[in-house]
Amino acid sequence: MAWIPPITHWGQQGQTSPGVDDFNRMEGNTQHLKDSIDTHLDDAGNPHSVTKAQVGLGNVPNYTAEQFRTASSYKLRAEVKSSAPSSPANGDIWYDSANHKFRGYANGAWV
Description:
The chain is of the alpha+beta class.
């Protein structure tokens, strides 16, 4: 249903309370607004055309999760495995999926 302008003269001469048509119009307008909001919320694109720079990410490269997870040149890497990575470096982070804990590598040991 399309938006119908509401009547705003209730209580004035000739109309002391809303009638059935008024309630039908309000119900239709409410449904129209709900549908519009639902459509907006379901839009997984970028409906407001927000850019990386607008949210402070202008200098961050676009990498896939796989590229980020496997690249050794990043300062921070996180592995998800049931056993510790075989050649860790200080600062590495590993999620121990067998024990459900995060581990960090520092001073030659997993902590």
